Amino acid sequence: MKVEIANLTISFPSPQGMSQAVRGVSMTLGAEKLGIVGESGSGKSLTARALLRLLPPAAVVTADRLQFDGIDILKASERDMRAIRGKRAGLILQDPKYALNPIMTAGAQIAEAWRNQKKGSAKEAMQAAIDLLAQVQIRDPKRVAAAYPHELSGGMGQRVMIAMMLAPDPELLIADEPTSALDASVQAEILRLMEDLVSRRGMGLILISHDLPLVSHFCDRVAVMYAGRVVEELAAGELVRAQHAYTRGLLDCLPTLSHPKGRLAVMSRDPAWLA
Amino acid sequence: MSDVVKRAWLLSDAPTSRSQAAWGRRYRLWCDFSSNGLAMTGLVIVVLLVLCAVAAPLLAPYDPTLQELANRLSVPTAAHWLGTDELGRDVLSRLLFGARVTLGMVIAVVVTVAPFGLAVGCVAGYYGGWADTILMRVTDVFLAFPRLILALAFVAAIHPGVTSAVIAIALTTWPPYARLARAETLTIRSADFIAAVRLTGASSGRIILRHIAPLCLGSLIVRVTLDMSAIILFAASLGFLGMGAQPPSPEWGTMIATARRFFLDQWWVPLMPGLAIFVASLAFNLLGDGLRDVLDPKQR
Amino acid sequence: MNGRNGRLAGTAASLLLTLFGLVFVTFFIGRVMPIDPLIAILGDHAPEDVMARTRVELGLDQPLVVQFGLYVWRLLHGDLGRSVMSSNLVTQDIARYFPATIELATVAIIVATLIGVPLGVLAAVRQGSVIDKVIRVVCLAGHSIPIFLLALLSLLIFYATLDWAPGTGRADVAFEGMNPVVTGFLTIDTAWAGDWDAFYDAWAHLAQPAGVLAYFSMAFIARMTRAFMLDALAGEYIITARAKGLSALRVIWRHAFGNIAVRLITVLALTYAGLLEGAVVTETVFSWPGLGQYLTVSLLNADMNAVLGATLVVGLIYMALNLFADAAYKMFDPRVR
Ligand SMILES: Nc1ncnc2c1ncn2[C@@H]1O[C@H](COP(=O)(O)OP(=O)(O)O)[C@@H](O)[C@H]1O
Ligand SMILES: [Mg+2]
Q1: Domain presence at residue C85
Q2: CATH no. for residue B284?
Q3: Binary contact (B154, C29; C-beta < 8 A)
Q4: pTM, rounded to two decimals
Q5: Is position C33 within any domain?
Q6: Which of A73, A82, B295, C12 has the lowest tally of Cβ within 10 angstroms?
Q7: Ligand 1 geometric centre to CA of A183 (Å)
Q8: A146 and A130 in contact (C-beta within 8 Å)?
Q9: Is A112 on the interface with C (CB under 8 A)?
């Protein structure tokens, strides 16, 4: 499995002409863990969703290359795309409160994903859903399978999301800020679970977040985005050697216990970064 | 200022004054609105309609009450563009004067209903508690009635005519406005800026009048415009059933009611006022639809 | 459990209040009427002593509060008074006319739903396309056209010009009263009796008024469906469903439509209630012997008992439908259940 993105541009029509939200992003990914970091509105989600062609209808996409395992996503038919979505690549969204269908039980939603790829009876599918729930370390999978999303906590909901996306055994998992809506105490747990499952299955992972240290802890490589561009791409261990002023600024803003500072630095933005 | 400069000033991303920001916002709304062909059609028809009503005495080729019994139920001719009715009166002239009755009724209903509903809704939403419970129960009672039937019973009980029709329509039209204003108030009430205003010591009355009511106006205007068409149809239905304006008033619904018996042979006689009602109500619907897309995009 | 009981009590209380309001308003309308109910009953020239006696019999000499009490008391015993025009009990009249209205409104709402819902879904899925605009105009026209104009046009075209449909009324004179009344619905009673000519005739008569009403409510249903669907399709869970690789049909019908179904039931209930009202005008044009026509004829003859009785009955049905819509929410929406 190999993902290739070269010079990806995503724009939206506005009264003053087209406005570019993603501007010439390039990256490649194999069976590894890539983190994408950047502030809100920097184009992370759009980039990730472009891979599954799940962008808003108004979006205009151009790219020199946008490929999933040799399949040209810009040209693929809707049917080919459906073979990628779910089956080969899963997408986990930020807030399970909105990302799960409120009128279907958790079990039914997972079973639906399983059944969509592995043809089987409704009963088998429900059993598979319960097994999957156990795999994401839910203690009482039967009860959770019968629960509606509003009856689940955020952490539980996100486990259901993960179980649902892992159901068809995909090769790539895209997680778009999977823990931003969760309590701090649950965040690490969910990330560890995801990392564990991904490593064990030898999958690729794109982890989107605005938390640079967190991402570098879980990923092999980190891409830093700012205003629709990738401004820097580094191996996770080399964060201290970051070149770009924006990345440095992000790192300087963090409080640390080892070197306490009297006053935290404030990011000062250089208009030249936009160029 | 040239047009290009003016446009750039209006569309500036970084307005330098409050009025520039406000006018920029209005200009953008106008751009949105005017790019919607259907809505613009509605606006043009509504404007024409108002002009026709205002200038009816100047535009009408005949006196709308002038009877020409020798020339009854005539087909449209050069002399009578839309034909004549069962008493030989000129249909076009009657339609023009009828626009006054119809628009007059609509305006009378709207100016009573909108402020009243707004007041009830804002008070209920802002104070909550008992005031809310009582006001909303009363609203529910009126909502529980089939509107047309309540209006019919009411008009029949007092006296059929334009005034009682207006009262009856108003009586059955206000509840949704109260509901709407209450819902808006509930969301605004807990906003931080209301808390800030309250901290400065503003009275409840002032908060409702100056801060909450103006914010409810956007959705209220949309609702009013969309309702105009419903009111036109409502008034016409009352007229058609003999419970609205009474003959010889040139109210459109009443005209159809009196001409109805000829519709199999002289079908154009009742058809003309029917088309007038349709066009007027369609125009308000188109206008309201366009306004909603612009002013209230979340509830298309 | 406690919260649930509390909610039930609240619902019951508001229901009673609304009911009280309904009764009060009809009573009030009955009193403000300038026509002396005695003259309506006895005529202009009844002798003084008969007038006085009847006044006492009807409780009209009592204070208003007592009169209201009497009114409620009679209502509780199912007494809506006697119609001056038909000199039947109003309840009997209503029982006779009501099935015709229900038959009309039911057929209309079924047709309107079967057409309106798919149109609304289609418009939402193809938002902004030509088909969306066409549907929008068709619906706006349905909202804007006076129902009596539509009815007259329909008669002019399908009856007078094309001669496809029979004229006004509910059945041909030849079939009038030929079959026993079982349900009161001619379309069912004729089939029950196996009288297929009358069956065909009943449907033929029903087609025009039902079609007119159906267009009128179809416009509303399609419009609401479109708005709800746009709302649902913008949900994050739609992205999730698509990311699972589901087919477009499944995403639209199972996930998006599934989420609006309950809200749609509410709209359908309210539309049905609105149809009972739309029937007033339609029945007048088509001489359809239903409650709407009964109401208008009574109105024009100042037959106030009949008017108020019919108003109250339609009001009650309105309330019941509202209640049903509420209950549907509580039954089918897991978030409220
Ligand atoms: N439907 C849309 N219409 C117009 N602009 C959009 C739309 N969706 C996203 N954008 C623009 O794209 C930018 C990047 O969005 P996104 O990728 O969601 O950012 P993030 O990095 O927070 O995930 C946003 O700032 C917004 O301006
Ligand atoms: Mg995002």
Answers
A1: no
A2: 1.10.3720.10
A3: yes
A4: 0.86
A5: yes
A6: C12
A7: 25
A8: no
A9: yes
**Where is average pLDDT lowest: A212-221, B227-236, C43-52?**
C43-52
C123 and C50 in one domain?
no
**Which tens digit of pLDDT belongs to each residue from C278-325?**
888 899 989 899 998 898 888 878 787 888 888 888 888 888 888 888
Does residue B55 lie in a domain region? no
- Residues 6+ away with beta carbon under 8 Å from B293: B32, B33, B36, B39, B300
How far apart are alpha carbons B77 and C98 in whole angstroms? 46
In ligand 1, the atom with minimum distance to the C-alpha of A48 is 17
Which one-letter amino acid corresponds to residue B54? V
**Is B3 within the bounds of a domain?**
no
- The residue nearest atom 18 of ligand 1, judged by CA position, is A45
> The tokens of B292 are what?
């909603």
Q: Do C251 and C321 reside in the same domain of the chain?
A: yes
Any domain includes B122: yes
Q: Which of B176, B105, B262, B150 is nearest to C280 (CA)?
A: B150
- Give the domain extent around B196: 99-296
Distance in Å, CA C245 to ligand 1 centroid: 23
Residues C70, C99 share a domain: no
**Segment B22-51, tens digit of pLDDT:** 888 888 888 888 888 888 999 999 999 999
Domain count, chain B: 1
User: In ligand 1, which atom is closest to the CA atom of A208?
Assistant: 23
- Residue ranges near ligand 2 (ion) with Cβ within 5 Å: A 45
- Going by pLDDT thresholds of 50, 70 and 90, the confidence category of residue B300 is very low
B292 pLDDT higher than 70 = yes
Ligand 1 site, residue A37, Cβ cutoff 6 A: no
| Number of separate domains in chain C | 2
Q: Do both C45 and C103 map to the same domain?
A: no
Which domain covers residue C196, as residue numbers?
A: 90-332
Q: How far is the CA of C96 from the centre of ligand 2 (A)?
A: 63
Contacts of B109 (CB under 8 A, 6+ apart): B166, B169, B170, B173, B231
